[in-house]
Recover the amino acids of this structure.
């Protein structure tokens, strides 16, 4: 945690670059020996610190990686391993190696084998010297999430010590809820990706060398999400709540769905995230097109039970609704925490296929139903194709900047302020969880109705969904979830819980895939054996500087 602490202090010194009014808000004492507590004594400074801790400490690129925010590289790995994008050109930060499957069986006689499997690449470069050379993929998400968590710890240590105008208790509880929410989100990101993590809830970078298993980290996430909800109940002044939130969320992000959420909207958002924590950390019982299918030797917390599905259904029923405001990002002409052309997976993919850093996967495009206006508006297959011998890298598809049909959901734009970046949950995600839970519990008609609602919301222009069986309904659900939630950091987790990312020998793999070879020849029934590590090892930058206590585990023992 030492390196994360250093970076957090560095971002504190740089807050003036993000907030145009920081010089007035932060009361600088001794500039040669700055301390957070000594420089933040009024609510204006606290808001700037809380905003910067999230959007600069947690979501900005502070270490010179591909793109310029959390949403370009750490989220990029999720979309790469989830096969929404097929690879990153130039091998920046191992983006061309980490998402390559172990093998692809194109047809009965043609098999392509990867001589440097993903698991081996991740472990080969999990050392501090590789991090220094931008080759350690395990490092980046850990870095940002613990920087964000540490910033929230420091804000919480000061929230009751500064002076406020108006209803002090309402403003204090608004800031506390803000910190609890983001701590819940950070722990969820750590616990859903890494085999183990650290529970660090003290200010000033204090930490522990006990590495808790991933399910314990997710439980900690749930604790903070619930604490955020109960803290919001203590906010009694709507005007003071709105005033505080207006300072916590960057002003240029307060448009579209990124406007200030009401307390009820925020609590619904919390329910969506609690449902997500259940869903993403257990195996589905729909594996390889078979209801009741199973994966052997998984690191996940068991398989979804009827109790789990009912919990997801209950939470999502009280989750985000269409039109609810959520935490969303936008670019601006200056003072961004990500840029329009390099800050997101979508931006890096929204270029002709022969030019873009990220390439749109053939496996993503194959999910669209015939006549789906989202495909018509957003993807074109001529003339800038890209064929490569890097197994799954080749693609015939490019993203249309901003889309071509008004009223249809746009997957990407490189224009300032045009792309709405969903940071956490969304209405569509909540509706898709409702759909999946309903279908799994036998309420197929209700599940299909939720799929239709999402399609209509995004302007797909498709006829009402139908399915002749539970298996057909679940297959439709998996495809629609990938289509509706692309670029939102969920693709790898979905592929993992559906069993696709596991080795074929464990019951995994994915079948019926479209793959284009180096000559541009499409195969439409290929088998892909991804064999990706289900939960990542702890990065060496943490466990070398903070050696694990006896009995705690930093390396996934199932690989």
């Amino acid at each position: 945690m030492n390196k994360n602490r250093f970076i957090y202090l560095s971002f504190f010194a740089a807050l003036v670059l993000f907030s145009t009014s920081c010089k007035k808000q932060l009361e600088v004492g001794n500039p040669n020996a700055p301390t957070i507590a000594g420089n933040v004594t009024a609510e204006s400074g606290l808001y700037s610190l809380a905003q910067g801790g999230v959007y600069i400490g947690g979501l900005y690129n502070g270490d010179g990686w591909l793109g310029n925010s959390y949403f370009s590289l750490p989220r990029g790995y999720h979309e790469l391993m989830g096969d929404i994008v097929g690879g990153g050109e130039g091998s920046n930060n191992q983006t061309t190696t980490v998402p390559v499957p172990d093998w692809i069986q194109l047809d009965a006689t043609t098999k392509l084998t990867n001589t440097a499997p993903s698991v081996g690449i991740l472990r080969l470069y999990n050392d501090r010297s590789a991090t220094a050379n931008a080759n350690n993929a395990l490092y980046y998400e850990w870095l940002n999430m613990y920087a964000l968590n540490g910033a929230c710890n420091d804000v919480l240590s000061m929230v009751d010590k500064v002076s406020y105008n108006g209803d002090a208790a309402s403003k204090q509880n608004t800031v506390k809820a803000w910190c609890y929410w983001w701590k819940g989100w950070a722990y969820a990101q750590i616990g859903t990706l890494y085999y183990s993590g650290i529970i660090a809830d003290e200010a000033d970078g204090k930490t522990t060398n006990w590495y808790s298993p991933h399910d314990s980290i997710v439980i900690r996430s749930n604790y903070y999400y619930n604490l955020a909800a109960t803290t919001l109940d203590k906010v009694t002044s709507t005007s003071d709540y709105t005033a505080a939130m207006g300072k916590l969320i960057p002003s240029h992000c307060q448009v579209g769905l990124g406007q200030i959420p009401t307390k009820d909207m925020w609590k619904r958002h919390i329910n969506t995230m609690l449902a997500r924590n259940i869903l993403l950390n257990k195996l589905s019982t729909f594996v390889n097109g078979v209801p009741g299918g199973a994966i052997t030797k998984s690191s996940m917390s068991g398989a979804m039970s009827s109790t789990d599905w009912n919990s997801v259904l209950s939470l999502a029923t009280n989750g985000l609704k269409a039109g609810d405001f959520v935490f969303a990002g936008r670019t601006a002409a200056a003072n961004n925490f990500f840029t329009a052309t390099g800050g997101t997976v979508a931006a890096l993919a929204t270029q002709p296929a022969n030019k873009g850093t990220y390439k749109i996967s053939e496996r993503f495009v194959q999910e669209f139903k015939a006549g789906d206006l989202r495909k018509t508006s957003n993807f074109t297959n001529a003339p800038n194709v890209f064929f490569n011998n890097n197994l799954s890298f080749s693609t015939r598809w490019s993203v249309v900047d901003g889309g071509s049909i008004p009223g249809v959901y746009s997957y990407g734009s490189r224009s300032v302020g045009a792309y709405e970046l969903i940071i956490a949950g969304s209405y569509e995600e909540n509706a898709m969880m409702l759909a999946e839970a309903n279908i799994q519990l036998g309420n197929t008609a209700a599940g299909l109705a939720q799929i239709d609602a999402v399609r209509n919301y995004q302007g797909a222009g498709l006829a009402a969904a139908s399915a002749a069986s539970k298996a057909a309904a679940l297959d439709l659900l998996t495809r629609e979830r990938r289509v509706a939630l692309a670029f939102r950091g969920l693709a790898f987790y979905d592929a993992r819980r559906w069993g696709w990312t596991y080795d074929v020998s464990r019951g995994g793999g994915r079948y019926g895939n479209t793959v284009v070879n180096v000559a541009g020849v499409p195969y439409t029934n290929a088998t892909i054996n991804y064999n990706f590590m289900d939960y990542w090892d702890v990065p060496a930058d943490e466990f070398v500087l903070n050696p694990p206590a006896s009995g705690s585990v930093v390396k996934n023992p199932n690989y």
